[in-house]
Amino acid sequence: MDENLYTVKAELAELGFHFLDNHIAIGHVPQTGNINNHVIQVEINLDCYPIKQPSIKLTRINGEEDLYQSMPIKWRHVDEIVASNPKQSEFYICCLHNWSAKREQNGFFIYSRILSWLESNVKQEWKLEEDLPTWRILPQFSNSVLYLPEFFLKQGEKVESKTMFKMDLYHQPFTFKNKTKASTNKRGDLYPYKEINYQESYTFFPEISEEKEFNKLKSLILGEKHSKSTLFFTRIPRYTEFKTFYQLLNYLRINNLFREISKDIKNVVLMVMYMGDSGRMEATAVILGREFIERKEELVGLTVLKIESMADRGKAVDLTIGLIGVGSLGSQIARLLVEKDVDRLILSDKDKMSLENLGRHVLGSFHVGNYKSFALSNFLSILYLKEGISATFDDDETAKHSDLLVVTVGDSQAYDRLAFQKFLNYDKPIIWAWTSPNNILQEIVITTKLTGCLNCYYEKINQDVQLNRLQEIARKEIQKQPSSEFDACGNPHTISRMERMVFFATQIVSLISYYSKNKNFKFDYVNYYWGIDDIIPTPLLGHLERNKSCFCN
To answer: Residue 256: its pLDDT value, please?
Structure first.
């Protein structure tokens, strides 16, 4: 590594750079002449080179140091690191995409990337491989976060521009620089900005009563004891152009948009929406000291807030899924369906979570002794902030309200009762799924109005040569391995391999996702056979016709 650093330093020196210390090189780009009358000065930090990507600080443009106000409006791929005073911001060039510790990524390479970045900005012509997705115009490097639901941002695009709106905002009590805490009996925005320690992390939530998922997150993070402030919000016209925080805030001040803010408010939480480089609406949020609004420049205070929104991804599974049996397999299916943004999920299971389920179930030790279906419904709702997950003990109600049933009950008698009594004439698709000890043989059978029933599948095993051969191989493998493990009381429990169980769940959810999109299935059954040391199973799939001698025909 020392040899690599020595080489790159020599190359940069050849290009006219000199070193402020052992790792920081300063120089001009281009080395000689200019690009359409533009020359920049940069600092290249080679700390931990080549393992760590060098940082490239832009220090001057055409000899000017006041980049906070002279940064060209149209320049792109430059990050602003904001100090408490926006006049002291630092700017870093983003041009070393996909950095890796390769020999060819040397001093000449670094210089060529900076030069290409400058040429692209000056000429406003970007190569596709260089114009990668970037941060917003104003980056959001911050310890603190403003959480917003997606619809809030969409509605913000429609409000009247150059108008200041306000709403209540909830957050943790501020910590002061003297290490004491603010009282929750006093509004947080009444404390002077300069007294608050913004090195601490705070989370902010605007008051939006109709958003259940959003308010669930607010309760989880803030709890009962929190402070209230005011969120000020404005949208600036689409034609407005700026590149730095100082340019944006100066625009707001010149246009007198702060006049609506009461003089009692000492720290102002402000969110601004604007048109970004890419032609889409963007947003930034800051906390401002009263001093900036009153034009007391020497006392300016500013803290950037990161904005995070709860994305509306759409429904990957636009169905109501009924899941009967939420044990080891069923709970994994439920988790994956929620992650797929299922429209609605109904869980049915009368069993309680027991100690032997730990490590074999999505639920954990906090849920021991609780009914699996209700505990899992509540757990997934909180974990993923998801509405539309319900629980019941009633299999008939689950079937009635579902577009598709998934049955993963744990024993064959329960399967037979459901298959040959309750759901023999069920007119919606059912996915039946079960697995052997050690997950050596995993079976999925899909029954619809057009297929045979489970009994037809059992008959097919006897009649289909390939299916019979695979099942016979699996049975011999199952017999070789211990099928049960015993607890301290001598009770047997089926041995399960969870990595195989999770794989099985993914296959079932993939079938559901395919059906949601296409309203049909590519096959009616599939067997997965795992040799005891296999990493990938052997699949066998096919179609399930009605057996002429079966009672379902």
So the answer is: 85
- Res 463: pLDDT: 93
Give percent of the chain above pLDDT 90.
64
Question: In 3-state terms, what secondary structure has residue 58?
Answer: strand
Q: Which residues contact 186 (CB under 8 A, 6 or more apart)?
A: none
Tokens of 8: 């790159």
Name the one residue in this structure whose structure tokens are 């994305």: 311
User: Which residue, among 38, 37, 14, has the nearest Cα to 25 in the 3D structure?
Assistant: 14
For the segment 379-422, what is each residue's pLDDT rounded down to a tens digit? 999 999 898 999 999 999 999 999 999 999 877 788 888 888 88
Can you give the three-state secondary structure of 272-330, one letter per residue?
Answer: EEEECCCCCEEEEEEEEEHHHHCCCHHHCCEEEEEEEEECCCCCCEEEEEEEECCCHHH
Q: Under a CB-based contact definition with an 8 Å cutoff, are residues 73 and 60 in contact?
A: no
Residue 137 above 70 pLDDT?
A: no
Identify the CA nearest to 216 among candidates 293, 146, 165, 147: 147
DSSP assignment letter at 208: -
Q: What is the DSSP string of 212-239?
A: HHHHHHHHHHH-S--EEEEEEEEE--TT
| Closest alpha carbon to 293 in 159, 169, 146, 193 | 193
Of 54, 39, 175, which is closest to residue 105 (Cα–Cα)?
A: 54
Of 146, 142, 153, nearest in space to 170 by CA: 146
- Distance between CA 357 and CA 111 in Å, rounded? 59
